[in-house]
Amino acid sequence: MTLVLEAAVLGILTGGVYALMASGLTLIFGVMRIINVGHGALVVLGAYLSFALFRSLHMDPFLSLVVTMPAMFALGVVLQLVFIRPLKTDREALSVLVTYALALGIEGVLGYVFTTNFVELRAWYETASFAVFGFHITWVYVFGFVLCLTILGALFLMLYRTSFGGAIRATMLNRTAAQLIGVDVDRVAAIAFGIGVATAAAGGVVFGITNAFNPGSHYDLISRLLTIIVLGGLGSLRGAVIAALIMLVSEDITQVLISPVWANFVFFVILVAILIVRPQGLYGVRVRDRI
Amino acid sequence: MSGTPTIAIRAGRVRALKGLGLVVVGILALILPLIAPDPATTGMAVFTVMYVGLASAWNIMGGYTGYISLGHAAFFGFGAYSFGLLLNHLSVAPGYLPFVLVPVAGLLTAVLAVGIGWVALRTRAATFVIVTIAFMFMLQLLGENLVKLTGGGAGLALPYSHDWGGDFFNVPYYYAMLVLAVLALVISWSIRRSKFGLGLLAIRDDEDKALAVGVPTRSFKLTAFVISAVLVGMIGAVYGYYVTYLYPQFAFDPLIGISMVLMAFLGGLGTVSGPVIGALLLEPAQMEFAYRFGASRLYLVFYSAVFLIVILLLPRGIVPSLADLVHRWRRGAAGPTTTARGSREAVKAASP
């Protein structure tokens, strides 16, 4: 029982990280109606950037976010301008292919620069732990969770309390109507993509400290993240957060109760179950021609 | 105007040219192992013809109905594994007999495809894409975890024929792949010309309207999905027999899934010849590049660059763009009718 409880706590803590990564993905979908299959590769890229800063300047991984997040934001804006904006017809399908190609490109470049050997971000909080009610919790999970909560909180504040957030939400609801009332949807799309990519960098740091990774790690990540946002309902931030928690908690509990090799499988089982009952996901809405 | 006979003659000429091209490609494909017997060439030919089949099969679902599946590698790997297990458990002697059992692997894939299709086709567009990816990873994971059945990460060995050595080694597999590729093409062509195919294209253009005018969209989509998956599964079976050792991460390789999609896109989505042209252009280039730069992973960058160029510059693919060109050329001969207004006048002039 304590093992299960411990697994649940760990699931919530890691779920926070996935919630952050998935909300970037679902934000991009909501605003642009595109699925960024390259999101996993961008997370891995973020982890490698922090790794490079650590290796050359001995910069603390969390501190390096001050550098990598703005850099990744800029990269996101550029990617959107160069590769996503030119897609005029059949965006949804073509964007999947374009972002898949970007993922392969990033994987190839990372493989060339850093080789395919597994690496890990190192810091004192990676192994140091503290005890609460008899559980041992490693500091990094707590720091990661706090970081993700902070960024998620900032994201929600931005979306619901600022006029730019209003413009983003308007674009998500109805692109044409938003355009009619004077929202510069192209600008909103570029910035939203940048924000999504910047959150990938933050997720990447925590992912990089808690997992050994190599350039090919993005496949595993993206399959999880996509499953999470489908479960939550495409384009729903709340859905993404809740789905991430559900998935990670069930994964960690499976790990304890059944076997670590089946932990990943739970993701897909939950996905199939939800699709049979509710194809639009937890918080999704059924719109004609969508879903 | 004297435009009409010219159009007829040119149309006839184009058709004759197409027919001639088909015959030439067909003969070349048939005698290839005779004119280029070295294993390097025939080995490349096996994979090229394999991708002709895969891209054509994928196109039946992805091209005709517009439902982009990025998870067809699931059926490829499943076909390979089920075929391997079949051969091992029935202790089939290596040689030509296993090729006869390939359709059995196809049947097993059909069962899987009905199940996956039933779930995945409850969703549309973006969600469908994601669900197909998820299913592929799910099968990959099963391949790794069901160690007693599949051997897990240690791999599954298939029987292989010791009699086929030297230059001959690739030849039986080449012809087996060729048969499947031709089968995929014939099926794709006949679907394109049938009422069923028309229904699929209607689904691509507007699924709700198609349903409203009486297209049984659910059963049509599922049928197309299963046909496409069965062909991919059978090709996977021959692949498994060819490589003789199966590993989950190579049999259920996301790159195989994305390659067939890229080839169909490059050649022209929803056309019969497009996937063939895409595969013939891309697979040899990809193999050459992987061979030269494989170790440095730079081939992924090459692949990504080709991909981006195709989609950003040629989003409709080679065949539709060429068809446009021919069309304009024909129309150009009939008179200056490139503008919308001009073509309306041309229609008026042509009608009695």
Protein described:
- The complex is a heterodimer of chains A (291) and B (352).
- By secondary structure, chain A is mostly helical.
- Chain A has one domain (2-277): ABC transporter involved in vitamin B12 uptake, BtuC (Orthogonal Bundle), CATH 1.10.3470.
- In chain A, helix 2 packs across helix 9, helix 3 (61-84) runs antiparallel to helix 8 and helix 9 (218-232) packs parallel to helix 11 (263-277).
- The longest helix of chain A has 31 residues, at 2-32.
- Chain A contains eleven helices and two strands, in the order ααααββααααααα.
- Helices cover 74% and strands 3% of the residues of chain A.
- In chain A, strands 1-2 form a two-stranded antiparallel sheet.
- Residues 287-291 of chain A have low confidence and may be disordered.
- Chain B has 352 residues and is mostly helical.
- Chain B has one domain.
- Helix content of chain B is 78%, strand content 1%.
- Chain B contains 17 helices and two strands.
- Chain B has a two-stranded antiparallel sheet with strand order 1-2.
- Classes of the chains: A mainly alpha (291), B mainly alpha (352).
- Chains A and B meet through helix 4, helix 9 and helix 11 of A and helix 6, helix 13 and helix 15 of B.
Short description:
Chain A is an all-alpha fold. Chain A has helices at residues 2-32, 39-57, 61-84, 91-114, 139-161, 163-173, 175-180, 185-210, 218-232, 237-257, 263-277; strands at 129-132, 135-138.
Number of domains of chain A: 1
Mean pLDDT of chain A: 87
For the record, the count of structural domains of chain B works out to 1
SSE pattern of chain A, N- to C-terminal: HHHHEEHHHHHHH
Percent in strands of chain A: under 5%
Name the strands of the widest sheet of chain B in spatial order. Answer: 1-2
Poorly predicted sequence stretches spanning 5 or more consecutive residues of chain B: 335-352
Taking all Cα atoms into account, the compactness measure Rg of chain A is: 19 Å
- Indicate the percent of residues in helices of chain A: over 70%
